[in-house]
Specification:
Strand order of the largest sheet: 1-2
Order of helices and strands: EHEHH
Number of strands: 2
Number of helices: 3
Largest sheet: 2 strands, parallel
Structural class: alpha+beta
Length: 72
């Protein structure tokens, strides 16, 4: 099961969590029905907005992505 993960340029918010809750419920339902699956979640693509936010914070873009993904 492949699902989209957080966009790492900013912290997750309630709108993001709705998606994650749905993914979790679907995964649990499929397992309950006997499906064997691996759940893979990506961290969404880096964008221009990501670069701007990193620069505004005075951070390198790679560092910013690691911080945001780690918080998730």
């Amino acid at each position: 099961m492949y699902t989209c993960g957080p966009t790492v340029y900013d912290y997750a918010h309630i709108g993001n969590y709705r998606t994650f809750v749905f993914q979790d419920i679907l995964r649990r339902f499929l397992k309950l029905r006997g499906f064997k699956l691996n759940h893979v979640m990506n961290a969404n693509a880096w964008t221009t907005a990501s670069s701007r936010m990193a620069a505004a914070a005075g951070w390198h873009s790679d560092y910013t992505a690691k911080i945001r993904a780690g918080v998730f």
